Amino acid sequence: MSPSRGHQEDEPDNSADSAGLFIFNLSIGTSTPQEIPGIWTSLPSWCGRSARPAPPASRRRHSRLPCSSHTCQSVVNQTCAANDSPCGYIATYIDATTNTAGYLSNDTFTFDSAQVPLVFGCSGASAGDFSGASGVFGFSRGPLSLVSQLQLSWFSYFWDSNDSSGDSFVQFGDDEVTRPPNSRSTPLLTNPLYPELYFVNLAGIMIDGELQRDIPAGTFDLLANGSGGVVLSTTVPATFLEEAAYDVVKKVLSSKIKANPVNGSALGLDLCYTMQSIAKTVPKLALVFDGDDAVMHLKRSNYFFRDNDTGLDCLTILPNRGLSLLGSLVQTDRNITYDMADAQAPQLIFDAGAAPPVHSLASMSMALSFGVWMVVLF
């Protein structure tokens, strides 16, 4: 896979196979910095069953939260068998089959040189596909997420489709947001049904610069009862559009590609072609958000996946009923920032097109490293 920079449309690559989940290194404890990779959602390996060795007792400062604690009662809201019994939890990610269970604990976490106390889940059991990650780090609006516990005013990330480049990062802080050049912004919405998630107002979709007016008005609206809307995700690679919008996008793309589609069910994808048949003919796609010129121009690899094993090029957009979801692939190769300094008017800031990573010098940051931590918005 080759890295892409700037706004130039790149040749198709197969970055989709590695862009679904994003992971980074982190230290736990107050001793001299030492990577302790055996972690679950901020979960030290010595919490539960792990093949990795536990750190010396002098470094272990974590302690279980009792069921009677305010944190346990306000977050987990469980019935205590005894006041001093551990605060148990079950957390579900991605789908109902991916979950982890254990007890809440606390410890000091180290980000760069900053050391902060955090409550986290100490896992004793897990199920499902965590793609080799030893832990899950939440950036949602939930009470135990990093955003809530550190009272962050913003966080941002850059997922590089070339995962060997080392350019990917997560950064966050409580200072003023640094806006990259050529960035756009759109309001972040709150869904009363899912208050911990990040919703946006997707106003429309453009194909080859033309707004698709056949998509019915209100297709992406977030309704007062919490149904519908468009949510952002870092754990689901593909993008899901409400059926009425998907049907229009699929029809227009098919008519412009002018090649015979093939069966892509082996990849779980709907619109597929042989690599040779669409080598140079994929139309350009852009997402139009609520805001002043808030258009996100996508690269080919943001919405088409090349699978070398099958020789297929497939659209990584699928239909869904009601809720639409913008997956991790459409977010690669651009700086994305969640600006929550104004709680009444939070903003999503994003690069209009593919761009190089932009670091904020005043922030805390973490370099991403596959195999250690998973970053979760939803």
Automatic annotation (TrEMBL):
User: What Pfam families does this protein's entry cite?
Assistant: TAXi_C (PF14541), TAXi_N (PF14543)
Gene Ontology terms: biological process: proteolysis
Keyword Hydrolase assigned to the entry: answer is yes
Q: Where is the Peptidase A1 domain?
A: 22-349
Listed A to Z, the keywords are: Aspartyl protease, Glycoprotein, Hydrolase, Protease
Superkingdom of the source species: Eukaryota
Spell out the GO cellular component terms annotated for this protein, sorted alphabetically and separated by semicolons: extracellular region
Q: Which SUPFAM superfamilies match?
A: Acid proteases (SSF50630)
> Molecular function (GO) terms listed?
aspartic-type endopeptidase activity
Does the keyword Transferase feature in the UniProt annotation? no
Family, as annotated: Belongs to the peptidase A1 family.
Question: Which protein are we looking at?
Answer: Peptidase A1 domain-containing protein
According to its UniProt entry, this protein's organism is Eleusine coracana subsp. coracana
What is the gene name?
gb17282
